[in-house]
Predict the 3D structure of the following.
Amino acid sequence: MSSTWTHTFNTPVFKGTVEVPTGLFINGKFVDGSTKQAIDVINPSTGQLITKISVGTLDDVNTAVKAAQHAFETTYGLAMRGSDRGLLLGKLAQLIEDNTDAIACVEALDNGKTFPFAKGDVQAVVACFRYYAGWADKIQGKTIETSEAQLVYTRHEPIGVVGQIIPWNFPILMLAWKLGPALATGNTVVLKPSEFTPLSALFVAKYIQEAGFPPGVVNIVNGYGNVVGQSIAEHMDIEKIAFTGSTLVGRKIMEAAAKSNLKNVTLELGGKSPNVIFDDCNLDDAVKWAAFGIFFNHGQVCCAGSRIFVHEKIYDEFLHRFTEYTRNVKVGDPFDPDNFQGPQVSQVQYERIMGYIKTGQEEGATLHHGGERIGSEGYFIQPTIFTDVKPHMRIVREEIFGPVGVVAKFRDEDDIIAQANDTLYGLAAAVFTRDIVKAVRTANRLKAGTVWVNCVNHLHTAVPFGGYKQSGIGRELGEYALANYTHVKAVQINVDMQL
Ligand code: NAD
């Protein structure tokens, strides 16, 4: 049988011992993968090994799918009342809430995000499960008036076994965004966490077991994307796939779905979000939000405000204040409560970001601030600002997924709409102004799934989130997410039996 990773935290923010199972979670049990092979889990603050976890294969995915099918048909799905599903989700939320600090520590260690933000993620997970617990007994169709001789109604039925694949930047939060609506609506799940950050999902699996979900309702199969992820995407008995990750892999998911059983696909992908700062804004606030927009979670945020556009009248003053603010962003140990930014998640990401910083300079942009590694161990990078950028540059067009922002000028509303929308992506955008009419007018013209006014990165479990263009398909969170996980069946009853 698989084992457990036991670790004692002795940090300023939490002292205590955690036990996290390291196996695959299939049919309600923690088991070794079929090959008995393991993946190294690396601490991004040091580059050292934390532990090893079991790695899955196609065989393990097949076993998990069978368990999920069985649970769907016999214990969950249509076999369990919505109110009981809600109770289970509520219990899970409570167990997670009771262990918030321990889970946040594991997340901070594994991902590198600073403890207060990891704790914020765990609190958002609790809110998400509670929110969808509330929906579980409110999944209902409509009656539709057609004629006196007909009774027509719709049912919103669970789809069946759903596959879910999540990234490493918000590991536990993405798990909740996926599991919440899928479980509330009665589906059973085979979920794959990122191979870079598998621990918090395994920690939560313990509480899924303890909350009393029937075996097979949630299966967690860790492993590599091109093996476990691909097996899920191609599986003939998985009828829906929900993916969060890069646009590149999102294409592979769609292709695999098309080539297999045409499973229903929702995608939450990358972004290159514009942050628009008009000359009538509150400049101090805009500076703080702009920094939060690009440096929060070390820039590893799909909706990061990575393109900062400033009205030409206030550009110099903004840049001066933004640079001073950035100079004071503290980077270091995720467990030191004074630090805002920790290490990037992995060596690969570190190299990718440093590569973009080099490219930006080679393309002729000015490296205005930062751009260096911090320290000699772990994957810490200075918060970085580029200026003198041109629309064709790769640092302007491509998602860097690190603490690297580009700052550019605009003249007027038409100019900023053209520049802001000049991207393949459309996940989010932000607008800073004190003029409500201008704010609404601009929000309407921006091609993005979310527009923030005088704030950035605000997410709420009740508010839909997702992308225009190549940022994705479908919406997560809120009532909208429920539609991703239900089939609509129309039942037409011929009341008077006439042909
Ligand atoms: P990624 O696409 O490399 O990996 C995401 C997941 O897909 C991982 O679990 C990975 O193992 C798996 N995967 C990789 N190759 C696969 C394949 N061939 N078939 C199936 N699965 C495969 O992304 P990442 O580096 O983990 O995360 C960063 C990306 O995620 C960024 O582009 C970011 O913008 C995006 N993201 C989007 C949102 C959103 O809500 N739109 C949220 C978070 C992250």
